[in-house]
Structures are given as structure tokens and as C-alpha cells.
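Q: What would this chain look like folded?
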Amino acid sequence: MSEVTLLKDTNLWAISTLGETTDNNAVSRMNIFTTEICTLFEFDNAATRKRSDFGCRVYTCKSLYVLEVSIPITLQGYFNTVLAKDPQNKSELPSDIWHCSITFGKIIHNMADQENRLRYFKNKGKDFDERRRIRADNTFELRKAKKEESLMKRRNVATIDASPLSPKCDAYNANVIENIEQISSAIFSPDINDVLLATRSARRMVSKERNPPLDTVINAGLVPRFVELLSCEALDGDIQFEASWALTNIASGTPEQTMCVVEKGGLPAFVALLSHSQYRIAEQAVWALGNIAGDGASMRDLVLKAGVLPHLIKLSNVKLSEQSSLLRNVTWTLSNLCRNKPAPHVEVIEAVLPTIKRLLSFDDQQILIDACWSLSYLSDGPDQQIQLVLDAQVLDRLITLLSSSELKILTPVLRTVGNIVTGNEDQTQAVIDAGALPLFATLLVHPRSNIVKEASWATSNIAAGSSGQIESLLKAGLLELIIDVIDKGDFKCQKEACWAISNITTGGTITQILTCVAAGLLKPFCKLLAVNDTKILEVILDGIRNILSAARQVDKLEQITTMIEEVEGLDKLEHLQYIQSDEIYNKAFSILDEFFPSEENQIEAEGDAYTGGASETQQQSAYMF
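A: My prediction, written as C-alpha cells:
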């Protein structure tokens, strides 16, 4: 055989070239191989619960004989599971088929090794704090940067006339130097006007919207000169302003470019400008510091250590009507000081939260966006950190904003509320008591899938709480909406919704668990047993086991198992025994073995029940499925 190809997720198992059509032995090998592979798969396997069907055909392609083998996906998994468990046991396998099978097995294992095998474990016996911790550990995708998030760095690319920071005069648009060598010479001129012209020309160069030549300016040695000019108050502060603007845009670049500004002494120079009498210069310093802080936790801590926070809090007290641009930049820089992990020190969080709360009262959209992102960063942490946010008394305002029609506001607000309900029971209850649950009814049907996903994630963490909190969720009408997400949502939303159901079946009462069944859960839940995602399959299987266990306690097991079989859940459970995952195999097999006994075992069990004189009075259930 010269080639073996596995076509994943199809019934077409393999295509193998048997030899050239001019080879006299090719036809013989083709016939033998076809006969042997048919013989191999013509058996009734108890593990598959059904006779396997297969297809086998031979055709020519580019002067080659090609064998195409088509078998059920379940049997593919079974065959390779056998090989994986005992690769040396080939006594019943013809040599050609053994060679082909080993090749298939290697392909499958190589593909499986590339998949993410993060291990989930059952919530059974865990308290609500532990279940929430498990959920927090499995929300990596929700922690990724999204387009809706505020930018870590911002460049000032506004034209001179459009810039709210720039003085409007014809001189700013005249006599610009385009050559970097001439700029490097003029910026050290004894003529202060030449210095201004060179600084402004360099600033315009690094303010290009596309591909600004930041490295060219850095390599020309201009950064140290810009830092020096931050203290030059000549020409009514115009040189300070232009130098600040240039450094702001250089700091908006790569970490190396940002570090260049810091290493050349930009940090203390910018902090000094925060108390400048001209707001345009103070604002440009705020902007530059925001870019430096946005480069990561270490840079953020350097900015905080430089004493920037008291200045920013003071600047946040300006009137919005008079200095709206300054206030927006202050809010954004504060959000970068709250950003990144590890979180800033508790003292910083306690100092900044009153200002964030005050900024939440503004009606300015950009201020609200950045203030809400600040809270989302600060609430993304342990219970103690979440409590600091709650103690700042911002929850009522957040719940009000949870009904915002502006997506850029709603996204960080929902993230913050979702973070809070990852906390302890009291913190989750605070969100419930604030009236958030009725608003989730709207969020779970939001036209934007990202909002539905975040809402489902938050709901899953509420469902990881006490049975009383689960009851609040049910009374708010969220169960049916969660089931609808499982049925019709995109896959990322479905995964979060499945977590919500699994948590209800873990921490809920029998009544609450079977309410899920009565609400129509089983069909969409079992439908997802066909997905190729090990993590979510474990969650669903745990949920199904919990449902079956609850049903058995109220003598409804037969009814529930019949319902699962009617929605093709039994077939899917059987198929999962052949997936390349020990966790899935064990969970699926355990459910089948415990709750779906074979016919022989069923007859034996019924006979035992009869001879044992089962009571005629059976426990009655109020559940109508």
C-alpha cells in the first residue's frame, strides 16, 4: 500500500492504493484484501448493539487500483479502540488489514493528540463555591480580547484642524520638514522656532494612520530629545504639546517601542505634566500614560508607582461640559490602570473605585464604556476582589445599564455582572436581589450571539449556586430560554447553556432537575451528543446522568429512558463508546450499563422484582412529561 487517507467525520473510512493497473499481482491483492476486509467486519458485535454495515468498492484513478472502504463511524471507533488497548493482538486480523489498521490508528491518535484535552470533572458532591471555581477555570474563551473591548492603546491620528487638543493657526500647517535627517538636525537648533518646527514635523510623521515610521524616529535618536522638550515651556507650551503628542504615538506601538519611551525618562516627565496649567498638555500626558499602562501588568505597575493615580483622580473632577475630551481620556487611562493580571494592589482598587462610581453617573457614552470596562477588569478575580466592587455600591447602576441598547456599554456591563456571580453565594445573591434575572430574559434572546454567550455564561454561574438561587432562575423564566439556546444557538452559546443545565442538575433538587425534562430539555440536549467537542460532551453526559439518577429516585427512570431513546439519545450514547477519549467512553458506558440494561438483564431484573413481591403501591410523581 502506498497511501492511506482518513476522512474524518464521514462514513468513508479510508482510501488505499493497491498497486498500478499494469501490475499483474494488483488484481489478486485487490480481491484478497477486499474479501478479507469484508470478512473482518461481517460480525455481530455486542458492544455496538447492532449489526455493522459496510461498503467496499474498487476503482481506477490515474493508473492505480484504489480500494475505498466505507464503514459506520461507530465501528471505526471500536476498531481503533481495540488497537489502542492491545496493539499486539492481531491474531484474527489478516496481515494486509493489520497494516492498514495500524496506519489508521496512528492517524487517528495523531489527530486526537492535537486536540485540547482539558479535563473536566463531575460536580457531584461539590458545593456551589467549588462548582463556580470549576466554571471560572473553563471560561478561557470568554476572557479573550474582543472587538467590543476598549483598546489597550490608542494613537492620536487626528488632523491638526480636527484635533480637540491642537491650537488652530495657520502656522501649524506650514513649513513641515519631511526628511528625518533634517528633523534630527533642526530639533537641536538654538533657534526655538526651528525646534518647534522639527518637533511638529516628527509628530506628524508618527501620526500617520497607516504604517507610521516609529522605528525610524526611534533609530534617529529623537526620543530622548522629545523627553527633554517635555519641560520646555517656550512658545506658550507648543513644544511641550508637540513632544507629548509624538511620544504618545510612539508609546502606542510595540512593547519595545513603549519601553523606549520609559527607558528614556518619559514616565516621570509625563507625571509632572499632569498638573500643567494648560489642559491640552495635561490631557496629552494622560493619553501617553494610558498607552504605557496598557502595555501589560508590569508597565501598569510602573505607572502606578510613579504616583499617577492622585493626579488622575483630581483631573476627573473637571466639568464634562468644559473638558469632555480630557475627562474621556482620564477615564480610559484609569481603565488601563485597572486592567491586566495580576490585578493591581488592593490599595489601588480601593482608591480608584469611588472615582469609577462617580464616572458611571455621567451620560457621556465613551466615559460610560471605559468606566464599565474598569469594573469588568476589577471584578475578574477572587471573592475578595469582587467584594471590593460590591462595597463600592455600583451594582444598582450596573443593573440599570444592563438594559442599555448600546452594545459597547452592554458588553462590559454584562461581563462585570457575570464576573460578580462567579463569586460566593452572597455575592451571587446580591445580583439576584438587585433585579438582574428579569433582564437576562432579554439578553438570552439578544440578536448578538456574543451577548447571548455572555448571558448564558452568567446564568450558568447562577445555576452553580444554591437550590434557592436555582429556583430564582427558574421563576424568572430563564430555563426555557436556556433550553432554546441549546436548541438553536450557535455552538459557543450552546456550550455555555449546557453548563447552565449541568449545574442545575448537579445542585438542584429532584423537582428542579425534572422540571428541566418537563421543559423539553432532552431532545436538544441529546442532539448535542453528536458534536466533536470532548469538553462539552463531558458536561452533557454529567447532566444526563444526574437526570437519570433523579428520575430513579421518584420511580420515573423507565419513562425518562424511553424519552431519551425516542429522541435518539440512546443511539448517540452508544456511539460515544467509540470516540477517541477515555473520559467520554467511561461516562457513556457507565450510563448505558447502569440505566439502559440489555434485554437479558432487564428480563432477569423484572423476574427478581416479581418473585420479590413488589408493592402494588408505587410512588406517584406530579411530573407530566
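Residues 608 and 614 are 9 Å apart (CA to CA).
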